[in-house]
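User: quick one, fold this
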Amino acid sequence: MSASATSTDDSNSVPPQLIVRGGIGGVLMGLANLVPGISGGTMLLAAGVYPGFIGAIAEITTLRFRLQSVVTLASVGIAAALSILLLAGSVKLLVEEHRWLMYSLFIGLTLGGVPLVWKMARPASPGLIGAAVGAFALMVVMAIGGDASGGGEATYLLTFLAGLAASSAMILPGVSGGYLLLLLGQYEPILGTIDQLKTGILGEGGPDFALVLDAMHVVIPLGVGIVVGVVGVSNLLQWLLERYAKPTLGALLGLLLGAVVGLWPFQEAREPVPGDVIKGHVVTAANAADFDSENWPVSRFTPAGADVAMSLGLIGSGLAATLLIGRLGRDPEADDETLTAQTG
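Assistant:
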């Protein structure tokens, strides 16, 4: 068969499993961007659609509209948007009330992306190892030095930067969008606005356009930041994969493994005590009761044996889930061809 015929067949053929895996990857990516410590890019890796997703963005932003690329972006993007809109409040509540259980599950989900990254990266080389160590160290520094103690007021510039950060996390495995939002002080304002948007659209008494319009003050600059970030980071990553495949994949592997450092499960929110600083305010005996539980500081605790066993079980469940998702409808030969094309 000629090259042109092959190209035509490919452009007009969309495997059904691509839509399923894209939808699952989009849901997981959306959930990941709601949770500090979890990477949306990692979830796309776990679902096995990461190389196709990056390639599709790069193609469409250079005005190459293949059907498979459009379907890939649509299935991932629509599923991610719906999961964020519908589950922002619920996920935030689960993390606040069952932090260590959720973090245990997230560790397993995150580690599930390691085998696919390694499949792309092997065999090891000095450049790959050096980049992996450097990226891992960066994630450790972020985990140790980050301040996740609350949020600030949402401004247009900060919200745009938050969208830029969140979009980078959608593309880069190991980089958590929720964590970067925390560092920018925008995690709570943005999730609160998303929940407000959902209430405005799906309220029991019908749509409330006043709520929707009020949410647009955050949604619009956030969306612009996400679009700019996705286009810029995806094309940069595509360029790096084509020219410096080993160091780039090594860095992705280091980011992925380093993300787990910030997810130490045995931590919980505690009531503030005088002397704590929350959202720039010093806690005193007089104002301690004024701080919402969602802003309480987080501290580590010593787990009991049963806690460790449950945590390990959840880690194993998350790992098994991502490995299973990664095998959904997979054609090993086709995957090898895709990975080879992506890494040159």
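User: anything notable?
Assistant: The chain is about 70% helix and 5% strand.
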